[in-house]
């Protein structure tokens, strides 16, 4: 990939004014074409290099891309897909390169920007425009009643936060959000500080994505993490990829699927949309991928109706039980619940299954045959499964399939929830969780040397409700874009606005920063690409990937500003100001030398013993189901579960909308206005709808429509205005549109049972012609 820089010789980074010339007014000139049937290849290389050079210039782009995901480099701040044992010299994907370019940009959002624009003027701009202002360079303060952010010293900022926190009637009147980009070391000191303050109000981005996976896996196998390694993926006979679009969201996964295909594996894509990344992969690291036909990935695509996955896996399991195609030895030795599950599946309503899935009986039978023929099966999933009312039940039914077939604790087989943010799983391992188990707190308390609160805190939705109701008065966000990631945008904005103080630790401006509380602080922090030098010398941080592997990350670029502090330094200096040294914790010593943090982690958290000694080589955390077919459930056995079929009711004239990312996007960060794989160019306000559904509502391809949600009990109606309707190959009754533009349609109180995850993948809407 790096050889492509020859084409860009003489290029230089853009200025802010030049970037503005790239048409950031959404939907001006929006065009569509037929969706792509290939992912990656030369277009991905060109796109990655253009983004890099535009933001960083040629020399900085070459230097930075060569360090991504390398042993002596930094971990990509994009997805959490693991690194192979043998690294390619270009061990990154197109969207990873975009993520790095966003962080390592030479553009700067300094005090002059905030002097030029009021908060109201900034709020009138698009998320895309805000993100393209560049790196934050100085701490900034929006005083009560002020119209503009103004510079403030770090000491002044810490004094303000400390004063507000110490003035609270209870520590539970503050909420401390965490994004998955935070390192293990920063996450550990963050939760230690918050608990020293006296609360478990630690909502995090996992609450909005894989919380349903964690709950279901804890119940079924005793640990809320996936059970496979990268080697298992590549050794599998059958890979079922459900509710996931790896071509955009986890592109390096395509290389693993290609390797599995090379060994004879079958791949099944279960997804409402036929995504390019699972159709054909043009591997940019191989000549065949650049100039040949690439690799066909999916042997079978099941275009399931939105929210039909529980019905599908229930139907497959019913067929397995009817045929007695189960692993009796494993079930007898390791599992409970077979009798109840057999009885429940014997009564499965086949007509309801077909209605819920939109699939034919023959298609479900074809999937079943592949499952029966496979000796090594892996099931991968992402938000397409986790963001529904019945998500926990659906994922338990996925676990049932693998338990029935004996596919856990077996090479080449297992469960693979594919995480998004690069360290969202590590944050949870470090204790970023509003409902920590007592045993975890006991060990943490012994290591830290001070008492920890035991009452559960609030998750993301709970935090929004608490801010709305005046129960949380201070909000601190460690990274991320809380407003644009959360559901019910209007309710979330009002909740943030009701706080006495909102604080955001960030690298770049985003929507949350221009939706402040009565007072607000922006605290600029080092990025993953930058050198972190403290009193004890140059520091290293660590992250945990989707498959429980922990490894080091080292930035090499000079900081974007001399005013930047690391996340660790920000947390520790604030903790020193607010709670002071406690027990075995000396905050400023921890900030000076991260090895001291890792020594505490080694004492506090199982699996991290000898952390510093193992840091550079990396290590894999224990996973009892994978390692020894042992299960930390109450009775020590894996649990087969009964999950009654629940079919989403959609009134006549309505559609089920799923929110999703464009290809020029990662989570809430908008890289550009194109979705190359889905054929959308120069715009984001589009809704993908089956042509027959458009016709049934008297609409045509290209019409402009408003998306209107179902009324709340109090009569509230949510509306997302002015979307281009695009006739698209999606199941009847289903639609898709990008977030965060459509997050406003997700009701705050519509969440998954048991996990509390917003139901962003099953929103009932109708289409109205735009006025």
UniProtKB/TrEMBL annotation:
Residues annotated as domain Molybdopterin dinucleotide-binding: 655-762
UniProt domain Molybdopterin oxidoreductase: residue ranges: 135-531
GO CC annotation terms, alphabetical: membrane
Keyword annotations: 4Fe-4S, Iron, Iron-sulfur, Metal-binding, Molybdenum, Oxidoreductase
Annotated Basic and acidic residues bias: 20-37
Superkingdom of the organism of origin: Bacteria
Needed co-factor(s): Mo-bis(molybdopterin guanine dinucleotide); [4Fe-4S] cluster
Renumbered residue ranges of the record's region Disordered: 1-38
Gene3D superfamilies: 3.40.50.740, Dimethylsulfoxide Reductase, domain 2
Class of the enzyme per the UniProt entry, highest EC level: oxidoreductase
One GO MF term attached to the UniProt entry: molybdenum ion binding
Signal peptide segment: none
E.C. numbers: 1.-.-.-
Record family assignment: Belongs to the prokaryotic molybdopterin-containing oxidoreductase family.
Protein name in the entry: Oxidoreductase
